[in-house]
């Protein structure tokens, strides 16, 4: 089984992160999947953006939570990366789902960015959108907030959930089961051969984040890591071809 390549926030090493341009580029170069981040807006809509503020990746300022989706979509989210992307806007999750329907070979890893305790009905909206667009087979939900994963699992146990973590957890597949998760998304710094072996024996896919270094990519692919998440999917695909063949 070849290592699957997920574009981290799309092809974010070559395009502005979490934009349709970055997602389309990742699919274009042959990525198996895409990772993106979702926040709640002021009007309780699902916006695709990483930070809890708009300051770093837009020409605006302030918390995402203090903007409506319409206000967010009036911001320029591409110029900070390059002037050629000045027309890029914050996508809604529904917009991404609409595109995803046309690329059924792509998996979509949605990270729930749960920074506020008042994200009421957040998981419900996520699940409803997945069901409405009929993309359940393509979607993976991940989060550092494992309460959110438990809630998603209770709402629809057929949606794959993955625990995001940065610690050296003992047999993390056993812990993951307690929140209804069936896959592991560990930081590369806590990923070692024993984890890959144990997870495989337990039937838990492992998708390691975020790997851009060529030597680390080669090491994990040589160890037959099930999937890696990278800012440079095209580079990772080239390395995969070298290590694992066509």
UniProtKB/TrEMBL annotation:
Annotated InterPro entries: GP_PDE_dom (IPR030395), PLC-like_Pdiesterase_TIM-brl (IPR017946)
GO biological process annotation, one example: lipid metabolic process
GO terms of molecular function: phosphoric diester hydrolase activity
UniProt-listed Gene3D superfamilies: Phosphatidylinositol (PI) phosphodiesterase
GP-PDE domain span: 3-240
Listed CDD domains: GDPD_TtGDE_like
Pfam families: GDPD (PF03009)
Name used for this protein in its record: Glycerophosphoryl diester phosphodiesterase
